[in-house]
Task: structure prediction
Amino acid sequence: RRLCLPDLQMHLRYQKNGIPGKKCGVIILTAEELSNCRDIATMQLCANKLDKKDFFGKSDPFLVFYRSNEDGTFTICHKTEVIKNTLNPVWQPFTIPVRALCNGDYDRTVKVDVFDWDRDGSHDFIGEFTTSYRELSRGQNQFNVYEVLNPKKKGKKKKYINSGTVSQYDIGENIFKQGGQILFLIATVLYFGNPTSLHYMSPYQMNAYAMALKAVGEIIQDYDSDKLFPAYGFGAKLPPDGKISHAFPLNGDSDHPNCVGIEGVLESYFQSLRTVQLYGPTNFAPVINKVANCAAEITDGSQYFVLLMITDGVISDMVQTKEAVVNAASLPLSIIIVGVGPAEFDAMEELDGDEVRVSSRGRLAERDIVQFVPFRDYIDRSGNQVLSMARLAKDVLAEIPDQLLSFMKSRGIEPRPALSSSPLPQLHRHM
Result:
């Protein structure tokens, strides 16, 4: 029976009298006045590196969304389909009334549980995270990453970090599901290490450059098809003859500059610190042009390039760099710049065209392709490097989906069909 209640919440307790003189149970009805919100939310989520729960396979994950009630309890409002045998699922897009998700309150807590589906209904709990519709609604503009946490595992294991991550999945990624690929390239200014240098290799913790490489790299490597990263340094004298270079391979091999995975990039980076010597000026344009030349060869949408640059903010060829960015804006290319250290980053802010589009010789960049973030804004004051890197990675990738889509749409390239999935599960939670 439909209830029309003037109050926001009412509890009705009803004692069932099936057996005379014996209490058989209590039914509690909780009611909340519905808002006038008529908004509809459409979203799509994916997960990365979830815990393995199946003995003979990986996991069969699905999500359960809960709306928070005014009394602090939670009510199930949506369940996704099951994705079989994977730790990196991509769920189908779904639509839900905002009123059902949070009763129109964009800041109300939304809880999400991650389960591993079992045929007998005893689904294994992987972990949980909380968010809000306001955060979820930014999915098309920000790369939201949520840590999936299992309270029991966190209490038992001192080194426990998380049980995986869940993030917004942008439709732009569908473009690469059949034969396409995203290619990430990495460049970093190199200094000879000493105790006052940002590159100094302490035996106790990573330096700022290594933290930035690891933070961003560990996420982007899961979207790179072959896990091979061309990695370059700029602004140094190279052995054995002291030749100055502004775009040299970190691994020392000009014909094959690829490093295997982010660990390979870090290994080559540390090796370079032992062999090269800082030498100015610090020019950005050469390495941007090198990557742009690669991107210019493939403009059919089958490949998209992302250049990650890590720098202390010093730039000696601003005019040439702006021209390089303007030229690259018409190509399948995005540029991420992470600033480390205490320097002023006015030049980097100018290259990030959020407020004013970059221009050169009277030409405006066709697209905004540069995202700049200063690492110091994300450093956790308690010294928690994991938290610092997670904060950095979330914002540093914020604009990539829109930048990718802007190129694809400008060339009339359509997304490929979404993948098929399994039926909706019945939920029986077991902690």
Observations:
- The first helix runs from residue 98 to 102.
- The mean pLDDT is 77.
